[in-house]
Amino acid sequence: MTPSFLYSIIRVATPLILASLGAVITSNAGITNIGIEGVMLISALAGVFASAFGFGPWFGLLIAILTGVVCSLAIGYVSMTLKADSVLTCIAFNTMALGGTVYFMYAVVKDKGTTLALSSGKLPSIHIPFIQNIPLVGDVISNHNVISYAAFVMIFVVYVLLYKTPLGLRIRSAGKSPKALSSVGVSLIKTRYIALGISGILGGMAGAFMSMGYVTWFSKNMTAGRGFIALAADAMGNSTPLGATLSSLLFAIAEALSYSLQVTTIPPELVQMLPYLVTIIGLIVYSVKRKSKDSKAREVYAKKNV
């Protein structure tokens, strides 16, 4: 396990961590936000356009975040205010995002594949003083994109938000006991809108990293299912910031390994399916453990009431 491999794990994990934290917020509010994939995709393209035609990458990041918020709130409006089925709403949104980004990309740069024709710039990488000079450690931890460091800061921020603030209590109540939340005069819909907005911020950051940190352009379907992997990380992590982060790192290891294996004689199709295979296996293990835990809990409850 070389320093470059460990470095790539952090790089690959960045969008997964951000998106999974967004999923943690909405899951705690009682919302399964399948639309996080589309939010990332649209935000990635919006960030590139804003950077190329606006005031550079930082402006692109701001627009990507705002786009993520608007998209998430739009999903909430259709599913909560208009009472449409939330799963179908998110599926429709993801489909629209996939086709819509290609349409607008072609409309602007006359290319259905990438935005390489645009000079959109890249968000800066940070060299950490002192640490960058430490052998091995500096090669792994230093010189990452600014959003990568922001992602790890957001783990702490989301933890504090959920477990140490009144807003976090309301968000968790919206998921665990919505009737109790309404009984004390707090709007359930408003609380869930706030959760979706926060999720949109994180999804927008993840999308911006994909197109202005991971690479410096947008390409068709560049999220490649990372939003769905983030949802799996949220489920495996029991909708907790730390659990989702650890699960994201596990999936990032699989993805980084798939990149390393591309230089071997293993068929590339098998290599490319590795991250998704690990995701499926992880969900199976999680489901089996959860089912076993629920069965034991029912047995204990039955014995107490005999």
Automatic annotation (TrEMBL):
The chain crosses the membrane at residues 6-26, 38-55, 61-80, 87-109, 146-163, 193-217, 270-288. InterPro entries: ABC_transp_permease. It holds the Pfam family BPD_transp_2. It comes from Clostridium porci. The keyword DNA repair does not apply. It is found in: Cell membrane. This is ABC transporter permease. Keywords: Cell membrane, Membrane, Transmembrane, Transmembrane helix. GO terms for molecular function: transmembrane transporter activity. GO terms for cellular component: plasma membrane. It comes from the Bacteria. It is a multi-pass membrane protein.
